[in-house]
Design brief:
The protein is an alpha/beta fold and 265 residues long. The chain contains 7 helices and 8 strands, in the order βαβαβαβααβαβαββ. It has an 8-stranded mixed beta sheet with strand order 3-2-1-4-5-6-7-8, with helices on both faces. The chain is globular. The N terminus is likely disordered.
Length: 265
């Protein structure tokens, strides 16, 4: 059994209550030092949870994040039992720069790199709204999570992605954000996802010299709390995301995909 860690000092990332209390991986026999390290946002349910499970099943060390540490720890425990792989819980709110900075510091201390970043957290599929009468407070709130959240994450975690030999950044987007087929309705969701698609293209270009493959993925209409009943199984939508997270080094970057097939921007 690993020795009990000494009490943390205020400057130690482990002293932050946003993180789980598990020990350093060098003293944890369940952590494989050569397995890919993957962080998934919004991972306490739905697509994020299933992406975490699938990546863990492929041998990744998964950092499963959510706004509630208690919820993240509970789900991480479930996924660990289901896969037999090390799954870490981390509190992370993509609308809070301090929370993101604390998470990045924790990942840096434990692993020194990040191989896969999956920006999955999303809100407000606002089917009740129209653009011409939209509540702009809801539009702003959606943008904070769906666009600025992934943007904050990319800024904070870019140094750790650059430290990886095979870095991947996946933005979970939606065909609702495709300009090619955009019509009316769901203005907060559609506009924020269109912005996320644009961000994907910019990041792909700016990080190409560092070998970071950056892609957007539409998981399709999936039967989740947000998508509602009638959609396809969560495992199928998550597999689209995992495809982009596990691309070979000569794989595409700056693309928009569903089920491995390109979608129009």
């Amino acid at each position: 059994m690993p020795p009990t860690p000494a009490p943390s000092t205020p400057t130690d990332p482990d002293s932050d209550p946003t993180t789980d209390p598990t020990p350093d991986p060098t003293s944890d026999p369940t952590t494989d030092p050569i397995s890919p390290v993957s962080l998934v946002t919004g991972a306490t349910r739905g697509i994020g949870r299933e992406v975490s499970r699938q990546l863990a099943s492929l041998g990744h060390t998964v950092v499963l994040t959510g706004r509630s540490l208690e919820a993240a720890a509970h789900v991480a425990g479930e996924v660990t039992e289901e896969t037999g792989r090390d799954v870490r819980a981390l509190r992370l709110d993509v609308t809070d720069e301090d929370s993101i900075a604390a998470a990045a510091a924790q990942v840096a201390r434990r692993y020194g790199r990040l191989d896969v970043l999956v920006n999955n957290a999303g809100i407000h599929y606002d089917t009740w709204q129209r653009a011409v009468t939209a509540d702009l407070a809801i539009v702003r709130e959606a943008a904070e999570t769906n666009l600025y959240g992934p943007w904050r994450m990319a800024i904070a975690f870019a140094p750790l992605l650059r430290a990886s030999a095979h870095p991947r950044l996946v933005n979970v987007s939606s065909e609702a954000g495709s300009l090619a087929g955009m019509g009316g309705g769901t203005p907060a969701y559609a506009a924020s996802k269109a912005g996320l698609n644009a961000l994907t293209r910019m990041l792909a270009d700016e990080l190409s010299a560092d070998g970071v493959l950056v892609n957007a993925v539409c998981p399709g209409w999936v039967a989740t709390d947000m998508g509602g009943p009638g959609g396809r199984p969560v495992a199928e939508g998550a597999a689209s995301v995992v495809y982009a997270a596990t691309l070979p080094d000569d794989g595409p970057t700056g693309g928009f995909f569903r089920d491995g097939h390109p979608l129009p921007w």
